[in-house]
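#onboarding

Welcome to the new folks! Below is a worked example of what a typical request in this channel looks like: someone posts a single protein sequence, and someone else replies with the predicted structure as tokens. Don't worry about understanding the tokens yet, we'll cover that in week two.

Example request:
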Amino acid sequence: MTQLNQFGQPVGDALPDWQPRPCPERVILEGRLCRLEPLQVRHASALFSAYALSPDTRSWTWLAREPDTSVEDFTRWVESISTLQDPLHFAVIDKQTDAPVGSLALMRIDARNGVMEVGSVHFSSLMTRTPLSTEAQWLLMRYAFDTLGYRRYEWKCNSLNEPSRLAAARLGFQYEGRFRQALVAKGHNRDTDWFSIIDKEWPALDRAFRKWLSADNFTDDGKQLNTLESCRQ
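Example response:
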């Protein structure tokens, strides 16, 4: 509800108990299908091999980096970011194989205002379009909202990246608008689309994720019975 200050001007809702939130830490997040581990050099070789299973490099098009041409180059990159606090990269470990199959990161972390972004999402073909990819996203959201108490969780993508836009909508992010000519990315203009989830939306989304991810929502051959969107209704 809009409030008025002593001058009769509208101001936002009062947050008298608000305190800056803790920064995310290098923790392990356990799910039923996968777990998230802070990305380390020991993940590099298997993760490089997982990415190499794709017949081409189209999964790199929207990433900030060009594809690595050797496991040594990829390992050097992992080593260079493995101790960073922002972005804080996680490896997605498939619990059936105990092998890394993708990665994603928490970034642009604003603990003072309780805002962070999920980004650098790079899932190999071993996890795309599987429940694993949804669970990985849910684990990070749950960490942000339930463990750390953040107020806002963001998703940003190139406005031409239709798969990312559709993924954000499927996961329950709300579209907020387009920042025109926001970046020069790999020598091309990038307009950036912004999406978010805020804390008051999280409980209902969390219930939908739990319902969708439950084992009884899938047939024996892994087909979903209910869509994630229908679980939110």
